[in-house]
Amino acid sequence: MTLALTLPRPDTKLRFALTRGELGKWLDTLPVGNAPEAARCLVQQLSAINRTSLGAPYRVELAELFCSKLEAILPALEAELAQATLPLTGKRRAIATVADEALAELTYAYMSALASLSASLIPFGVRRRLQRPVLQAMRALARRLTVGYRVYAPRPATAWQDLHLLHRLASKHGIAETPIAGSAETPSSVYRNALLLAFAQPHKLMHGEVDRILAYLAAFGDRSILVYRFPKVLTIRLMPDRISSTGKPPGRDSSREHLARFVA
Fold this sequence. Notes:
The chain is mostly helical. Helices cover about 60% and strands about 5% of the residues.
């Protein structure tokens, strides 16, 4: 199985030489209170990892360590960008750049692991070993796209190509609807919400509307499903409300209608 994912070129000038224990201690020293600086430090280490020859299991393990730390840092960067208006100040432009770079390198970390796994896997145990890196790579890609939408930046050149390939890989191995431990997201739900947000043409939206749509998707995204009409044609169908015996929560109809208008 050969994957045509976007991967960084190896660089002999870069070398990652920390053990897992040393990396854990180094991550604990990052200035989490200074999110931009912490993100820059993570980018430097991830860049070295992604351009160094490492085994697939170790790559996944390292990616998970970095992902955990980025999850603690990114909300502060995203909150800053959510308040940004054009033209961007120098500070916010730097924040947008480092957030994009951090998510790009995290994506490369998981996709590099997938490329190594695809070259070495035997049929037994394929689903279990692919599940986490596929979902995490898709989550990082979708989040990277959203960072760009918030500041009206051009979308990364191969982001959608990689998202399509990753979802196809998940579907092929029967893990598209399977969440990982500790998360309700699946490859299909990440893919679906990324598509719905893109259908809203975020570069044409007013300031703040991207986050409004993200809130709608979090609440009502599962009311839409991916539909394969032909082998190579994928559409999304918005499903009607299912009324429970306790009735609908206040505001559900109006929010669902707003979401439908955005993605129509």
